[in-house]
From TrEMBL:
It comes from the Bacteria. The chain crosses the membrane at residues 53-74, 86-106. Pfam families: DUF983 (PF06170). This is DUF983 domain-containing protein. It comes from Flavobacterium solisilvae. The lineage of its organism: Bacteria, Pseudomonadati, Bacteroidota, Flavobacteriia, Flavobacteriales. Keywords: Membrane, Transmembrane, Transmembrane helix.
Amino acid sequence: MFNSLYHIFRNECPSCHKGKVFADKSFFFSMGFPKMNSHCSYCNYKFEKEPGYFFGAMFVSYGVAVLEGLLTYFCIRPFFDSNFDLWMFPIIAFVLLSLTFFNIRFSRMIWIYMFKNYSN
């Protein structure tokens, strides 16, 4: 699992671990919708198996965003007097909005790695 996370964060092909999935230089700090390569430049692995393949990645992105929201809440909680303060919402919203483009890339990488052929 840690080996797969290492390759996911390095934006590497799930088959050969040499080619890049996204054409963007930076996996973490790219702004805008990601530009994906259709195939791996080394092993010709096809990233999008069928139309609508990444529809399920939206659910992964939702789970990642919920986790980030909860982590943000627990990190900022000690700075407020009550458990529920309305000033927490803008902070959590800012964190979630600033991580949106990262979440798109990260969820697609998780989705690709979940459905790669592990028999090879």
